[in-house]
Structures are given as structure tokens and as C-alpha cells.
């Protein structure tokens, strides 16, 4: 029987979806579209926990898709929490199917991360896979979840089934955790801990498979999806580990003893049949980074960064492929503007098997303090235009976006319809200095090399004819909230009250033209509302509450 979202049920019973509240599961069962799910997530009366929203919707879960061969063929995703993996693999050229023993999770993935025309099967665990022998070129399986649910014997039997459906020359990718982590998880789930504590190499070997590569997930990373090749793990941990005090000392000791795997226990393991291990297989990540040991880091929305000899952004969707093409074009445009000295050279947009990427030089950047980042941001701002170059606000790019049909929709969605109407009605004639703007100036977009050369990155929101005050004001707010730990709403309130200090705040005064600081704060918030429409709504609904709070703040300002 196939349901309304394309799930074919072959399971006699449903496995539990761990750590997902029952009211969330009920919502998923009753929803017929992703919009209904997101409406429930962001309901003002009873929103879902932010961490749960991120876990379910953030497309970083698809990032490891670049670690598999790009030969095309058929792929199968078995269980696991990498919800965006199947559409990412589909975009990269595989004919993908899904199968899962957790019915609600499978339904959620069909709603929130659909794959056009792909089959989805709700199956028992363990059970015979409903696919022919030697029919799948890539199988992705969460080995640790299988272990936790059915133990060693059941897991081996399931991996034997995986080997059966694997085509000649095919690859198995296993999500695994360190054995100590498995024990802790088993205790938390009230499962039998002893069944979990076995090496993944043993399980794969029992099914006739041999590991050929391992990418470890670095610990305590904000993006929760940075994968490093095992040979580079110790080096990366030394550079990125944030532990302090006694924990730092213990981490250094473990690294020195060669126990880096204890510090980075979660991993993605690639495996093949023993007779296939001699075949040379190149992954997309290796090709774009021009390196046999690329580092993969998930970025904010449906794209990943791959670092090797170059720094490359790889799209995981058609929308992001177009966005990366625009970003490269905007980078070249910015290089010819007043930002030129801060723009990277040699940024390109090559294609790999039809996938267009954004390719940039790899900078060996050093850590930058907040004060230094603020100074770079202030120095990078183009000088204000002369008085005769001031233009009415209604002639700028920000205004065009605000008055568009998309701007109307985005403002209505966030509760800013009346604020937008007030601005459009009363502010269009005000004269402001106009020129090039970066569009997303904040400390994380500042890179400084060991030699002291400063650069700005992420030019996808560059505009040649925008109010100059937007960059200065937004950057001042971002520095303030980074320094104080406050949210955007408090930062724009302080901006409107003229309470911000420092070089960026000083720049606001020289770039606002006929706008009051309260009007500048309002324009900053409305510009963010329009800039974060579809990605925010579709992938990052947890930002809605922050934006709504900012809208309420500026809506109460005079003028």
C-alpha cells in the first residue's frame, strides 16, 4: 500500500523515532505538505524546540553526499537522520530510493526533503530488502542505529542484505560512532549495551565488505557537519578543538598518543567488496578540491565547502547552483568597485559533470579578534558619495526588493506588512548616499592571512546601487550582538537609540543622508526580512522568531 506522500508500507510494525516528541510525530502523520509542518514548528503558542527544528530541517545533513563516487547509477538511503541526503545525491546524479524502519521519519523526509519520482519504502528491521540482487551502486546506512535496535547478529544479517543488493563495483557508506559513544547511547535508550560495542570493521567483514576510507566528524563544531579524512584528523583537531583547562590537556595527551578517534568519535566510513578495493574511485570532493584528502564542511543552506588545494563551494540543489553562479558573478562585480582591495582574486565557476561550483583560492587564515574584525569591516566600507550623488531611497536596490511582490509576501509572512506599507508610503523621497554594498557584513565574513592581508567573503548579496548606510548599520549590529551575546532585536534597538559605539557606528552617521537612525534601523530589519525569505522559511524556520522580534522592535519606533 502506498500513501499520499509516496511511502510504500512493507513493515508489520513501526520502530520508535528516538527523542522526537509524540505531538511532533502526530503533526508529521497528519500533514499533507511541508508548509503545514513548518507552520506547526513555528507556532507562536507552542513552537518546537529550536534544536529539534535544526535537526529535522537543516540541509547540512546532505553535506557528506560529496564524499561518494560521481559515477551515477542507483542509490539507496537506509534509515538515519541525514534527512537531506537523498535529494542531495539525486541532484548530484544518482537515481535515489529511500527505505526506513521508522515510518514517521520516512514520511517527514518525503514531506520536507522530497526527491521527485523516487521510491520510499517503510520496511521491517531486520528484513529482506525489497530490491533485486546487484541493483544498487551506492548504499548509505546508519550502522549504529541498526546495532542499537537489533544487536550484532541482526546488524550482520542486515549488512549481508546490503551486500546482496550492491552492484559490482558499488560502494557502501556507513554512519558510525565510537564504541564508547555507542555504549552511552545504548544505556540512554535502555538497550543492551553489550550488543553495541563491536568494531564496525568486524560487522562489515562479516558481510564481505572492507573499509576503504574514513571521514571523522570534528567535535564541538557549530555547523555539526565538518568531516575530516582520518589521516588529517590529528592536525585538524589541534587547530580547531575548543576545549580549555584540564579537558584541553587531556585532549592534547590523547592526540599525542594517537587516539584522535576518541576526540572525534562520529564518522562516515566508505566500504567496498574486497575484490573492488583495487579500483581507483574519485569522489566529487576529491575532484573539486584537487586533493585526495579533502575536508568537507556543511554551510548554511544546501551547499557544502570542500577544502583541499582550493576552497570550493558545492551546491546540493538546483537553487543553490544558481545562487553560487550569482555569487561568483557578484564577486567579480565587487572586485571592480570600491571594495576591490578586499575581494579575493581568481574566483571561478567551473563545472564538474554538470554541477557548477564556486572555486576560490585557499587562504591560510588566522584567528581574528572581534576588535580586529570590526576594524577590517570599517576600513572596507567604500567612502560616502559626494552630495550631488545622493539619490532618493526609492531608486535603490533595497527599495526595489521591498516594493516587489516577493517583498510584500515576505513582510506579510513575518508580520511586517504594516511597517512595510508605512516605509513605502513615507520614506521613498528621502535622499541617501548610494553605492556598492556587500549585503551581509559581519565578523565571520572577515578573513585575515598570516601575512596580515584582509579579505571579505560571501558576496552573494552584493549590490552596486544600494544605500551605503545598510552595510555600516548591519555590520555595527552584528559586532554588537557578537560582543554582548544579545539578539538582533536588541542590537537594532541600540542602533536606533544611538547607543552603539566604535568605528562602524561612526560610519552610520556619515552614510545615512536624510534618514534618522530610527529609520536606518527599520530599513536594516526590512532588508533582512526580504533577504531571508525562501531559505529562512524552507530551511531555517528557527530564525523566524528572531526576525519577528526585530520587526516588533522597529515597528514601535517613532517615524
What report would you give on this structure?
The structure is a single chain. With 559 residues, the protein is of the alpha+beta class. Strand 19 and strand 20 (454-456) form a beta hairpin. Helix 20 packs parallel to helix 24 (544-555). The protein starts with 6 loop residues before the first strand and ends with a helix.
Short characterization:
The chain is of the alpha+beta class. It has 24 helices and 21 strands. The protein has a 13-stranded mixed beta sheet with strand order 1-4-3-2-5-6-9-7-8-10-11-12-15. The protein has a two-stranded antiparallel ribbon with strand order 13-14. A two-stranded antiparallel ribbon has the order 16-17.
List keywords for this structure.
single chain; alpha+beta; 559 residues; 24 helices; two-stranded antiparallel sheet; 17% strand
Total DSSP E strands? 21
Task: Report the sheet with the most strands, covering strand number, pairing sense and barrel closure.
Answer: 13 strands, mixed
- Bin the strand percentage: 15-25%
**Global Rg:** 25 Å
Q: Biggest sheet: strands side by side, in what order? A: 1-4-3-2-5-6-9-7-8-10-11-12-15
Outline type: globular
Please mark out the parts with pLDDT under 50 across 5 or more consecutive residues, or reply none.
Answer: none
Task: Count the DSSP helices.
Answer: 24
Helix coverage percent = 40-55%
Structural class, by secondary structure, is alpha+beta
Ends apart, CA distance between termini: 60 Å
How confident overall, as mean pLDDT?
A: 88
Amino acid at each position: 500500500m502506498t500513501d499520499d506522500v509516496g511511502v510504500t508500507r512493507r513493515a508489520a510494525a513501526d520502530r520508535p523515532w528516538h527523542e522526537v516528541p509524540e505531538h511532533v510525530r502526530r503533526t508529521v502523520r497528519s500533514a499533507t505538505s511541508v508548509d503545514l509542518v513548518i507552520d506547526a514548528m513555528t507556532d507562536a503558542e507552542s513552537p518546537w524546540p529550536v534544536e529539534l527544528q535544526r535537526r529535522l530541517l537543516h540541509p547540512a545533513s546532505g553535506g557528506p553526499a560529496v564524499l561518494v563516487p560521481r559515477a551515477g547509477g542507483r542509490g539507496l538511503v537506509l534509515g538515519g537522520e541525514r534527512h537531506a541526503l537523498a535529494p542531495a545525491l539525486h541532484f548530484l546524479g544518482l537515481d535515489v530510493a529511500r527505505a526506513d524502519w521508522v515510518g514517521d521519519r520516512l514520511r517527514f523526509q518525503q514531506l520536507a526533503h522530497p526527491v521527485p519520482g523516487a521510491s520510499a519504502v517503510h520496511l521491517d528491521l531486520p528484513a529482506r530488502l525489497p530490491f533485486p540482487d546487484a541493483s544498487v551502486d551506492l548504499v548509505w546506512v546508519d550502522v549504529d542505529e541498526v546495532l542499537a535496535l537489533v544487536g550484532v547478529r541482526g546488524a550482520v544479517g542486515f549488512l549481508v542484505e546490503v551486500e546482496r543488493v550492491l552492484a559490482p563495483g558499488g560502494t557502501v557508506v556507513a554512519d558510525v560512532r565510537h564504541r564508547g559513544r555507542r555504549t552511552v547511547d545504548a544505556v540512554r535508550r535502555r538497550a543492551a549495551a553489550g550488543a553495541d560495542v563491536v568494531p564496525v570493521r568486524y560487522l562489515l567483514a562479516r558481510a564481505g565488505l572492507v573499509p576503504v576510507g574514513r571521514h571523522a566528524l570534528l567535535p564541538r563544531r557549530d555547523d555539526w557537519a565538518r568531516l575530516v579524512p582520518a589521516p588529517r584528523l590529528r592536525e585538524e583537531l589541534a587547530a580547531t578543538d575548543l576545549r580549555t583547562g584540564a579537558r584541553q590537556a587531556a585532549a592534547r595527551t590523547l592526540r599525542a598518543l594517537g587516539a584522535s578517534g576518541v576526540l572525534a568519535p562520529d564518522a562516515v566510513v566508505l566500504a567496498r567488496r574486497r575484490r573492488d578495493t583495487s579500483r581507483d574511485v574519485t569522489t566529487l570532493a576529491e575532484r573539486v578540491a584537487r586533493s585526495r584528502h579533502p575536508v568537507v564542511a556543511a554551510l548554511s543552506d544546501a551547499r557544502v565547502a570542500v577544502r583541499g588545494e582550493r576552497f570550493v563551494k558545492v551546491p546540493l540543489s538546483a537553487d543553490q547552483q544558481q545562487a553560487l553562479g550569482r555569487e561568483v558573478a557578484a564577486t567579480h562585480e565587487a572586485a571592480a568597485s570600491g571594495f576591490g582591495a578586499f575581494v579575493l582574486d581568481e574566483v571561478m565557476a567551473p563545472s564538474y559533470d554538470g554541477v557548477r561550483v564556486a572555486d576560490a583560492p585557499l587562504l591560510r587564515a588566522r584567528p581574528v579578534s572581534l576588535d580586529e574584525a570590526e576594524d577590517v569591516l570599517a576600513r572596507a566600507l567604500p567612502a560616502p558619495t559626494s552630495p550631488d550623488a545622493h539619490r532618493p531611497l526609492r531608486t535603490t536596490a533595497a527599495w526595489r526588493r521591498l516594493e516587489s511582490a516577493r517583498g510584500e509576501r515576505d513582510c506579510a509572512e513575518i508580520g511586517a506588512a504594516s511597517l512595510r506599507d508605512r516605509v513605502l508610503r513615507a520614506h521613498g523621497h528621502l535622499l541617501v548616499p548610494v553605492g556598492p554594498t556587500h549585503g551581509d557584513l559581519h565578523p565571520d565574513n572577515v578573513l585575515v592571512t598570516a601575512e596580515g592581508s584582509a579579505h571579505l567573503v560571501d558576496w552573494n548579496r552584493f549590490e552596486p546601487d544600494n544605500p551605503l548606510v545598510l552595510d555600516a548599520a548591519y555590520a555595527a549590529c552584528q559586532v554588537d550582538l557578537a560582543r554582548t551575546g544579545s539578539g538582533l532585536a536588541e542590537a537594532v534597538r541600540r542602533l536606533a537609540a544611538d547607543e552603539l559605539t566604535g568605528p562602524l557606528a561612526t560610519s552610520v552617521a556619515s552614510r545615512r543622508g536624510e534618514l534618522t537612525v530610527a529609520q536606518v534601523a527599520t530599513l536594516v530589519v526590512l532588508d533582512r526580512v526580504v533577504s531571508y525569505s525562501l531559505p529562512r522559511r524552507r530551511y531555517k524556520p528557527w530564525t523566524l522568531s528572531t526576525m519577528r522580534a526585530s520587526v516588533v522592535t522597529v515597528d514601535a519606533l517613532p517615524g
